[in-house]
Amino acid sequence: MNDSWLNKVNWAQDGLVPAVTQDSASGRVLTVAWMNREALKLTAATGEAHYWSRSRKKLWHKGEESGHVQKVKSIRLDCDQDVVLLEVEQVGGIACHTGRESCFFNRYEPDTTGETAGGEWVAIDPVLKDPKEIYRK
Amino acid sequence: MNDSWLNKVNWAQDGLVPAVTQDSASGRVLTVAWMNREALKLTAATGEAHYWSRSRKKLWHKGEESGHVQKVKSIRLDCDQDVVLLEVEQVGGIACHTGRESCFFNRYEPDTTGETAGGEWVAIDPVLKDPKEIYRK
What we know:
Largest interface: A-B, 48 and 48 residues
Shape of chain A: globular
Largest sheet of chain A: 4 strands, mixed
Helix content of chain A: 10-25%
Oligomer: homodimer
């Protein structure tokens, strides 16, 4: 197999690169996860996003439990060849394990007192589906 | 200063988190860089994106040389509190040091022979301005 394109990725010492995943319709950034060589190869071969789970130390076919797979529309690589960007169709419209569309549901809100760089994170996006419903077997 | 919101970020052992930066108008992902606590604090305080340059080992006010600063519209944090997402207005319309709009100008093109997971990266986005013009003093 001609997989020389995989060698052009600047894998870090731990063999991983960050992978940003964006909804191709809405443009929302859904998730940032990690890929090793095998995850990127499987993503290209199957047309569905695969990542490396750093916590579980195993390959992770996104949606394998929830059914919320990510159908890949394009795979891009940045100028330093060390970050991957996927454009996907997010099946079910839910990418986050909390039941939200995107993992980036916390927004920084500055202090209303105008104190410089004071503020807080506020969860501003709705939970679309109870995680208990998503992950029950 | 009430900077307890900075403590809620799960800074990695090296004190950094990835920061994805997206154009608020086009939705394009422009850059992925790294932030330490000081970079995030300065980003919030000044309204312009600041990062930590891992190669130069110093704080980096994006656009300090090129003038292509990023005016921050929102700052978000993901469910694991270990990735930051900025929505910005990209001054000059160029985020990449190669003179392109986005750093993600390489797209994976599968082999036309249909070989599984064979293919190549192709630079598909135009250079909008010669880097020599951008960075001359």
